[in-house]
Amino acid sequence: MQALAPRPTELGGFTIHRLLPQRPRRMVGAWCFLDLLGPVAVGGDRALDVPPHPHIGLQTVTWVLAGEALHKDSLGSEAVARPGTLNLMTSGAGIAHSEETPGRGGGLLHLVQLWIAQPDGDRNGPPAFDHHAERPVHEMRGGRSTVILGTVGGIHAPARTFSPLVAADVAIDPGGEVTLPLAAGFEHALVPLAGKCAVEADVLAPDHLYYLAPGRDGIAVSGLGNTPARVLLIGGAPFEEPILMWWNFVARTTDEIVAARDDWEAGRRFGEVRAYAGRRMPAPRFLGRPVPANPMS
């Protein structure tokens, strides 16, 4: 396994742990971005508030472990993501959205935000938003997997996707062990989310990403101690198309990135998030250095 430590950054007034992309590992299948937020206390004046910002060429996946996150977009969609629900946004040629903590109630916020790169044949298609109120569960000896996207153990979670992939939230009983079935042609990654767990003889560090190369048809994960453990599994067929990432854009050429930035600054293409009470996010200055993000970079 290849282990990647988190890279701290800021989002919406909070410190987050970024696991993808990183220089040693840019992608896992079509998954090209992974942020962990929390658990952190919210309430009153301390709230998540990410103003409207644009996307092209990707899907966003919001998976909430604790608390709530409110999505608003330029299609007019509004949906609250809670534990067990899925917010899935498809940007295609262009969409804008915001993310907030709804209301002023207190509590903990803990969530995972991921991006999926869209293949070339789909990335210029129409934008869309899907909210799934529940996800199916695969019961196993020693625990269970909530299937977010794709298929685990014959349990399929229907959703709008554009390439072969999987994501699951795996709960391991105290002192238990689960054997996760894997597609041998996929590359995968495990991210510990709560509790303590191990793979083979290796204890997994919290908030790290552990990359698994293709060729495995299963992996055993053991819970350690007297409390449940929780692990995120992602995976997919190796993404062969070279991509460029800059700011909130997944593209193929620098010209596409420049055009998308210019359109956002000029108020073209992406529409307005009219339900958001505040100003939209300005684009940073483009210095001409987008990040190659294909697996071999």
Strand elements, count: 26
The overall number of domains is 1
What percent of residues are in strands?
Answer: over 45%
Helix content: under 10%
So, CATH architecture? Sandwich
State the separation between the terminal residues, measured CA to CA: 19 Å
Largest sheet: 8 strands, antiparallel
The run of helices and strands is EEEEEEEEEEEEEEEEEEEEEEEEEHE
> What average pLDDT do the residues reach?
93
Write up this protein.
The protein contains one helix and 26 strands. With 297 residues, the protein is mainly beta. The strands form five sheets. Strands 1, 13, 14, 15, 16, 18, 21 and 23 form an eight-stranded antiparallel sheet that branches. Strands 2-3-4-11-6-9-12 form a seven-stranded antiparallel sheet, with no helix packed on it. 44% of the residues are buried. Residues 293-297 have low confidence and may be disordered.
